[in-house]
Structures are given as C-alpha cells and as structure tokens.
Design brief:
2 copies of one chain form a homodimer. The first copy, chain A, is of the alpha/beta class and about 270 residues long. Helix content of chain A is about 35%, strand content about 25%. The first copy, chain A, has 10 helices and 8 strands.
C-alpha cells in the first residue's frame, strides 16, 4: 500500500527524536556536539557513563571531565582510555569550588548531577563563573514524577515514590527535570531553553522495553528495595509487586512513558 | 554570539514538533493531511472543534463528519460553513452502528472521542469495517495522568484526580492515551505506531501558558468543580486551592507538562 499525504511526508516521521530514538543515548546526546578547538567542562562525570558519548560527539573539542570522587575519576579515565579517547582530561574537582580560572571554558556540560545536590542553584552559579561570555551550559536531568505506564499499578507508583523519597532524604531531587527552566534562569543564564525528551515504549519498540523500561528504570527503582524496606517506606511484598508490575508493562500490550529534560543557557 | 556546533545544526531546533509548537493545533494536527480525492470519515466530530483544522489540512479530500448528537452535528455544520469549507458533509450517526458500506472510506480520523466511550475497542472495530484494505485510522487522545508541573501541588493533583474519577464513573477513561497502542492492536489494525505529543510549558512559551495551561487544561479541571463537590470527592476549599496552584504554574518560574498520544494503524 502507499501512504500519500498531501503535505508530502509520512505523518509517522514527524517527531524524529522522540519517535525514532532506538536508545537513550540517541535521545539525550545526539544533538550535543561542540566545535573543534572549544574548551568543554564536563562537571560531575562520575564513572564516565556520559563522557565517552560526549567525547565521540565532539571529536575536536578539548574536554576536561571532573568529579568530586577521586575513585570515580580514575574509573572514568580508564573507560575513556579503553574507548581510545585522547582528547579528554580527567581531574578530581568539587563543582562548588572549581580549580579553574574564571571564563576559562567555552561550554559546560552537566548530566544527571544536579539531581543529587542539595543546592543545584549554587552549583549552576559556580559553573557559570568558569564559562566565557557567549559560552553555554547544557544540563540533562530526569524526572521520576514523569513516569506513567499501562497497565497502571498503585504498587509500581508507590515503589517509584520510595526512590523519590529516599533521594529527597539524601538531599537530592528526583523530580528536578521539570524545574530546570527556573533553576537556570535564577542562576543568571540567559536565553534559557528547555527541551523535553520523552521516552515512549510499547511493543513496537522492543529495544527500549528491554534497554530502558527494564534495565534502566526498573533496575534503578529495584536498587532502593533494601533502603525502602529499612526505612519502612513500603512492605517488601508490595514493593516486589510494584517491580513486577513495572516489568509487566514491557509485555505485548504494555506501554511505558518517562521524560528527561535537556536545558540550554547562555552566559552573558 | 555564534553557536556553531559540530553537527551543523542548533541543538535547540532538534525536536521541532514538541519544542516549537506554538499552539495545540500545530502539535496535534500539522502532520495529518489526506490526499486529494480520498474519502475520509471523521468519527465523533462533536461541535466541530477539530473539523475545521482537519478540513483545512486536507483541502482536496472528501470528508464526512459524523456525531451521535444531532444538535452537535448542526453546530459543527454551522462552524464549517462559517469557515467557508465546502468539502465536508455532516451527518448524524452512531459509531457503533455506522450507516456506511463496508470499506467505503480510505481513512478514518478520531480525535478526543474514545476517552468518552465505555467500549473504545468495539468502536475501533466498527470503524475498521468501513475502511478499505490499505486505508488508515488516526486516533488522538489525551492522558490526564501525564500532567505534572512545577511547583508541584498535592491539591492540584487531587483536583485532576477528581476529573479522572468522574470521567471513569461516566464510563470513560481520562487516562486512555497511554493505552492506544494495545487498543489499536487488539482491534486488529496493523503496523500500529504511536507518537506521543508532549506539551511543555514554561515562561519562555507564554502562548502555551495562557492557551494551554490556563485556558485548556485548568479550565477543563475547573469544569468538574460542582460534580466533584457533589460527589464528595474533594472539599471546595482544597479544590479551589488546586486550581489556584495550576494557575500558579504559569508564573515566571513555573512549568507544566502534558502529553497527548497520536496513534496510526493500517487496515489489511
């Protein structure tokens, strides 16, 4: 059959990024590439989960990746070397007390970091100081309150809430995605723009059902099981039911939705 | 300043549909246009809220718009005439008992209809019968469980839940968006594809703050105030607080998220 539409394009192709992203990496990173020669700071690289992608998408940039944990930095460096990347330098550093001159970077990249900080706004101000006027910040964060699914399940929703509560007790914010716009504006960035990146999973997208719903999101919620029980946030049986119900959404008639937020700001 | 990125495009431009939609009409309808000469059935046109857009985007198609309410059809016809549309015919008809020959349409379009039906799957099967092999169905529905916002508010969430509960009591499903994929597959459509259409609103998108958050979503929730109170679902003061908190999300530091689902299926 043919599908000839008046506008000359298939309606199914219209929102490429969300609809066709085969992996989370595509969805979050494919549109971040920094020019050759630019100086880029990756703040809070952890064990380098995002560093390899960042570096591959910006082959000519000079990247410095920092993390507060000496051990994580060492692991990140090892991953980068294993991936054959030579244009990334690693260094232990505290975002709140950066060992860099003011305006010494063209761009800052921050991914899955602010959600863990008690004072994300203070961190953004500290990062802003090391960016030259005209430079940019790019921030990517999730938002666990954006998760919903079919079949719906009160147990699954409660298990997710355990993760949100535990992260809040630790001083973080698992719902930070929705507040990136005011965070960047308040920190003094200009021309702030937020681009939501929704992950939608159904049986027509088996890579995402396995790679995202099961192995990323559900695995992360499952990771707080012992803490949730220890803090009496949820009965073990109900928590396990919640996990089972999340996995249930990857069956042939299930769907799963989650949204990441990618924010851009300019330094003036 | 310049923003030169390696990939040669501005990262801010990447998800055009979601990021740049100025209005709900763009976001939901801009990619639906049927070829000249094709026979299109709009099922459940109501008072014609979507008919004018549908018809404008398919100027050469032969459109028949039906609704179960004689009165609504009359209103829809009036709107279409006022808009100068001559290629739409209106007719009172019941989706579950359509007065059309089998396979007499090339395409069926259904927008904000299934959410009100007790048996949306039966409706889809009835619609499938009047589409020729190789023809398509397009379905657009919302999902009120996809709404979240900043600042978060328990009162606002409870007010939204009132609407969801009341719609469920009336036999409908305000959370139907997330289940379009299994609904279309179960009804026997092939090559089913669902495209989420997320509305993201912050102070950088004032048209949407006014046109969507306030005048569309909040107004709709406010519309169930009397029923919610009559059914003792929520105290009046708390409900009003919830509405106030939804409006609060349109202030300079607020954000609001909602997702519509657009589904496509083919008849074989």
């Amino acid at each position: 059959m043919t599908r000839a539409y008046v506008h000359g394009y298939d309606p199914r192709e219209n929102c490429r990024l969300q609809d066709q992203a085969k992996t989370l990496v595509d969805l979050l990173h494919s549109d971040t590439g920094y020019p050759a020669g630019s100086r880029v700071l990756e703040a809070g690289c952890g064990v380098g989960a995002q560093t390899v992608t960042l570096a591959r998408n910006s082959p000519g940039a000079h990247i410095i990746s920092v993390d507060i944990s000496e051990q994580s930095v060492a692991q990140a460096e090892q991953s980068a070397r294993a991936a054959g990347l030579s244009h990334v330098r690693f260094q232990q550093a505290d975002i709140f007390n950066l060992p860099f001159d003011p305006q010494s970077f063209d761009h800052v990249f921050v991914c899955f970091v602010l959600e863990h900080l008690k004072e994300p706004g203070v961190a953004l101000r500290a990062l802003k100081k090391v960016v030259r006027p005209g430079g940019t910040v790019t921030v990517i964060e999730g938002d666990h309150g954006s998760a919903y699914f079919y079949p719906d399940s009160a147990a699954a929703r409660a298990a997710i809430r355990c993760q949100v509560d535990l992260q809040a007790r630790a001083g973080g914010n698992a719902l930070i995605g929705r507040s990136l716009y005011p965070l960047l504006v308040t920190a003094g960035f200009q021309d702030v723009r937020v681009s939501p990146r929704m992950v939608y999973v159904d049986a027509g997208r088996p890579e995402l059902a396995d790679g995202f719903t099961k192995k990323t999101f559900t695995a992360m919620i499952e990771g707080v099981r012992e803490s949730a029980i220890a803090h009496s946030l949820m009965a073990p049986e109900l928590f396990d039911q919640g996990i089972q119900d999340l996995v249930r959404t990857t069956e042939a008639d299930g769907t799963f939705c989650y949204t990441f937020f990618k924010a851009f700001g300019t330094v003036v």
